[in-house]
Write a structure and sequence with these properties.
The protein is an all-alpha fold. It is built from nine helices and no strands.
Length: 177
C-alpha cells in the first residue's frame, strides 16, 4: 500500500474516532462506551497500515478530541487507554505468540491496563469518577469493587476486541486490498 493510501486511511480512522468521541456530547451517559467504541478503529489502522500509522491516527484523534469537543471525558479516556490499546495489544500478542506463552500476554495486558487506570485515577480523578456510576467512591467498598469489576470488564473487552479483529480480517480486509 502506498504512503498516500496509508495517510488517507489513517486520517479516515482518526476522523471516525473523533466522530465517535463527539457522540459523548449528545449521549453523556455512555461516554465510556463511546470511548471504547472509538478505540476499535485504530486496530484497523494497525492491521492495514502498521503500528506507526495507527499511532499517528490515535494521537491525532486524541488531540482533536481534547481540543475540539465540549466534553473532554471521552477524549481523556481515549487518550489514556482506548486510543493506544490496539497498538500495544497487537505488540503483546505478537510477543506472546513468539514466546508460546499465553499467560505472559495476559500478564502484560493486565499490567498495562492497571498502569493506565492508575494514571487516569491519580491524574484525572474527576474525569475518572465522572464516567463511573454515581456514589462509587462514597462507600468504603467502592474502590474494592472497582478493583474487581474493572479488570473483569477489561478481560471481556479484550476478548470481544479479539473477536472483532478476527471478523475484520475475514470480512473487511480482503475488500480493502
Amino acid at each position: 500500500m502506498s504512503r498516500t493510501k496509508k495517510l488517507t486511511f489513517s486520517a479516515l480512522i482518526a476522523a471516525l474516532c473523533v466522530l465517535c468521541l463527539a457522540g459523548s456530547a449528545l449521549l453523556p451517559r455512555i461516554t465510556l462506551s463511546l470511548a471504547a467504541l472509538a478505540g476499535l478503529f485504530p486496530a484497523a489502522a494497525v492491521i492495514v497500515c502498521g503500528y506507526g500509522w495507527a499511532g499517528g491516527a490515535s494521537a491525532t484523534a486524541a488531540l482533536l478530541a481534547l481540543l475540539l469537543l465540549p466534553d473532554k471525558t471521552a477524549g481523556i479516556w481515549f487518550a489514556c487507554f482506548f486510543g493506544h490499546y490496539p497498538i500495544w495489544k497487537a505488540l503483546i500478542e505478537r510477543f506472546q505468540t513468539e514466546r508460546k506463552q499465553p499467560w505472559l500476554g495476559w500478564l502484560l495486558k493486565l499490567l498495562g491496563f492497571a498502569g493506565c487506570m492508575c494514571l487516569l485515577y491519580f491524574a484525572f480523578a474527576s474525569f475518572f469518577a465522572a464516567a463511573l456510576p454515581e456514589g462509587m467512591f462514597d462507600s468504603g467498598y467502592g474502590r474494592i469493587v472497582l478493583l474487581i469489576v474493572l479488570p473483569i470488564a477489561f478481560v471481556v473487552y479484550d476478548v470481544a476486541f479479539s473477536i472483532l479483529i478476527g471478523w475484520f480480517r475475514i470480512n473487511v480486509l480482503p475488500k480493502l486490498k
